Each structure stands twice: as structure tokens, then as C-alpha cells.
Amino acid sequence: MPLLGPADELPHPPRRVLVAGTSGSGKSTMASLVARTLGLSYVEMDSLFHGPQWTPRPEFEDDVRRFVKRHAWATEWQYRAARPVLLAHADTLVWLDHPRHVVMRRVAVRTAVRRFRRQELWNGNVEPPLRTVFTDPEHLLRWAWKSHNRTAERVRAVLRGEHGDRLAVVRLRGQREVDQWRSGPLRRAAERGEESVR
Length: 198
Prior knowledge:
Layout: E1 16-20, H1 27-38, E2 41-42, H2 45-49, H3 60-68, E3 73-76, H4 83-89, E4 92-96, H5 100-117, H6 132-135, H7 140-146, H8 150-160, E5 168-172, H9 175-197
Parallel strand pairs: 1-3, 1-4, 2-3, 4-5
Helix pairs in contact: 5-7
């Protein structure tokens, strides 16, 4: 199946949608929006993975396996243990391929806002002090910078691999293309779904 762009119609009604992208690309926002637009269930992968004190939940992989058995869903394509399971059940992959400077600006602003507001994230966790960007080699800002190109490598592997024939892959570069896809192919897919129910 060819790589689709922001104006290309979706080849089938999306029922199990993954959103790929580096940290700060807007995966959760997009997955939630896709779910609302198409009437799918949505679970944020971070909420399944992170336990108290940022420790991984031992139930994470079992929770992912239960989630993918649902008839229709949207979520983020992330976490090494979850990615193969999610991909095996998905029919659509939306790739947010934003420039590095866009992603870094977004993740920096988001991290600062969450820290200053002491915003509770998952299972009681909050962003660590901002100074940890200099002391923690796995800090989200550092991770976003060094992992920026990895999503592209993973998506290209998908296109070359066993899932490429059945999986619709949409590549969106920048907010303008995101908006174009939302108001065009995604909206029309939702309208076709409503018509099929009538």
C-alpha cells in the first residue's frame, strides 16, 4: 500500500488507529481527536505504562493485549513491548513526521507548563524539576532530541514488512498538513461511517 499524504483518501474506514511520532509531536492529541471523530475508544499508552513514582506497571503488556481485542480503537504507537502487539491489530497508522525544531519547541513548552502547574499526569506522577534536564540522561527533552529519527526508521520498516499490504500509513509533516488531513480525509471517513450505519 502506498504512503498516503494529507489529501489522500483513506482506502478503508479506520477502526484500529495508531499514531506514531517522537515525544512532543502530538501523538496523544491526534489519537484522542481521531477517536472522537470516528467514534472509537481511546486509551493513552502512558496511562497504562506508568505506575506511581514513574515505575513501569507490571500489568502493562497484559493491558495492551486486552485493549487491542476491542473492535475499534485509537492510541499512540509507542513502547518497545507494545509496538508489535499494537501493529499486528491496527488497520491505520498516522505518522506525525514534524521537523525537529517544531517537536523540540512543543515538548519544551509542554514540560515547563506541566512543571509550573504541578499538573498530575498518570497515577499521581508529576514532571520532575526542570533542572533535571541537565542531570538526567533520559530526561524527556533529551530523549525527544536523540530519538527524533527513530520513528521514521520504524515506519519505513513497517512499509517494507509484512504489514505494508494491509495497513494504511498516512504521513503528516507539520501542523498545516495535520489540519488538512483532519478537515479532509479524516472528516470524510467519519461521514462515510455515519452513512453506513443509517
